[in-house]
Amino acid sequence: MAKFHGKTEDAPFLSAPFWQKGIKILGRVLRPFYTENGTAYAVKLHSPVKLGGKEVSLVALGGLKGFEMALVSAGLDRLRPGDDLYLECVGRTASTKVADRIDFELEVNRSDSSAEITDDDVPF
What we know:
Layout: E1 24-35, E2 38-51, E3 54-62, H1 65-73, E4 84-93, E5 101-109
């Protein structure tokens, strides 16, 4: 019998306060999930990061407009499970909203074998 156990705190969000110019992560996308702020992703990092005094290797990423804009700039509307991700904070841009936008440089490497079935592929 398989048994699984997890806690929310074991996969914390890399929220706005985490990101400072020069901070970068490398990891593999495990899966998307949906929040009231849009799509987010569970990411297994190649090297742990320190959050709240604790090193973590499994994080959640999403909900930041700068991240979404970097995806669009890369020609992507979303990440897929198995994508290898490089993400670096390159600075902040003043915003008329509550907080400055965090700006990112993004690179995604996707295996050719990770072809995705889309609505266009379904004949009905």
